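--- STAGE predict ---
source: upstream dedup step, 1 unique chain passed
mode: sequence only
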Amino acid sequence: MQITVAALIVRFMERLGIARAYGMPGSHILPVYDQLYDSPIKTVLVKHEQGAAFMACGEARATGSIAACITTAGPGATNLVTGIANAYADKLPILIITGETSTSIFGKGGLQESSGEGGSIDQTDLFRGITRYHKIVERTDYLLQVLRQASRILLSPNAGPVLLSFPYNIQKELIEESLLDDIRFATDAPRICNSFAATEEMGRMIREARHPVIVAGHGCFIAGAQDMLQKLGERHAIRVATSLKGKGLIAENDPRAIGCLGVTSDGSAYRHIVDHADLMIVLGAGFNERTSYLWDPRLMANKRVIQVDHDATQLEKVFKADLVIHGDIRAVLEDLLICLSDFPAPAPPTLTAPEVKPRFTAIAHLFERLIERLPEAMVFDDNIILAQTYLKASPQHRYFPNSGVSSLGHAIPAAIGARCAIATPTFAVTGDGGFQMACMELMTAVNYKIPLNVVMINNGTLGLIRKNQYQLYQERYIDCDFQNPDYALLAQSFGIAHWRVETPADVDALFEHADLKDGINLIEVMWDKNVFPAYKSDR
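--- STAGE serialize ---
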């Protein structure tokens, strides 16, 4: 049966298992939107296309499934750039559908044209560096190959954003619906298996170590290895630190957890690794600037190193390992538990819990109550500095830091996308600077009745910039301070609840009276702009 290309695009999305599409219509993409009218795929109208990209990122991060956004040509596509760059850096499976002017007017100066002809914007060049695959589909005779390539990348272990742009006239052409039968819509990629001999060597090195430490990263989430990590720690008393993106792989109140490794953390994991560890096992952690304390050589000194990763490009990228295993992390840990089945657990060294700084009491108390009062939750965080130390994440309390390209304004739309997909209490943590980049998307939450809690730190400044200017630039403050609106009135105008937090007692009142599961709340945490986190930047 013949259907329009617009209809085929929607059927393609349905077969990929896409549940919703975030975006904003425009005339050049209306044929696809018209087909979405009768589709089970839900559409979410955003306030800005960047929000659509971040919402798709949030859904993909929370679910591990393919998410989608859809926009019109020209500015509709260009407004996606930061969000798509974020998805590219985080290797998120995002399908982006954009419209384009009709092919008959390419190069003639059509409104919002981005074909690259006749001096128009070249959308292919624009997205080339931030997508795994990008194609303007100018004919239908190669559409099958395009969709095969798109599905292959979206379903691959190392996924990333795919952008397909369809000229207006192509969307209205007819094509055989059976074309979709020749596309694979389920991943059948075999797990990357290491040799059992390599895992036996790993087990031997653990047996020889007195104080082994695991550094677990986001790759463990990708592999679904949380339970294997827990078993390994429990059976063999191996201490576990995580990267920022791996935070919560094991419950951080577990006696084996030594905290989140990173320059903005409380330093407990760093001190334990430097002072005690004689073997470091890096599982799916990229060891980037934050995690590695700017690649501090003391983390690797006087110890053996094992690195396991499913992504070959991460292996020995920034450090030399004594044993490298390119494999599926879950499969490696399953084999390792067999290798260590007769190995008794050594006595781990005693840890000293870090002291909570009094100046952070209110926010620390808020994070403590979140863990105590909510059996499960999702936290999307623009700030990261406070949560990295004070939020005790777990597999039930998922933490999603501002990773990717580390863009402010990500937390609110990303949290909305995640909450669309998963019905659990959801928090977006942001500063007042980041809040003002994306606060309009709160109306998206209102319009679709999406429960959300926004924790906004109000200090009237771009806190990281002011801290750096205080520490490194002799207090020569420029373009960091600003005046805030009355957030109680702003929340009232949005039709959402507002809570002002200054003390731990205010936090207790919040958790006693606020609807943090099904309501939309703006939680304003007051902060002195001259109180800075203890860590020092180098730039």
